[in-house]
TrEMBL record:
It comes from the Eukaryota. Residues 9-44 form the BPTI/Kunitz inhibitor domain. It is found in: Secreted. One of its GO terms (molecular function) is serine-type endopeptidase inhibitor activity. GO terms for cellular component: extracellular space. Keywords: Disulfide bond, Protease inhibitor, Secreted, Serine protease inhibitor. This is Kunitz/Bovine pancreatic trypsin inhibitor domain protein.
Amino acid sequence: MFEKASLLRRYYDRYDHRCRRFYYGGCEGNENRFQTLEECSAACHYEPPSDRERCFQPHDPGTCDNDIERWFFDMNKKQCVCRGLLCQKVQLRYFHKPGLHIKLDSNSPNHLKL
């Protein structure tokens, strides 16, 4: 009978955007497993989306009940629109900004101007 290993390893936490410790049992798993913090940090790092990428993420109202004014880019209307009930941390959130202007030169999202 084989005993499971208990090897200290690192993995990249995509929610916290940092490398974390865990004990690897020695079998299976996936490629998100690194021997050292340095190896994990070199392979995985968080880069926030550019303003252009933020505009093309789907609108996500979150799950909280707070009626907070937030702005998002509506691809159908091709303009920023305001919605409430947005309290979770999502990249496609604009804080109270009635003067926010995002324009498209044509129907193509590649022509976005911020």
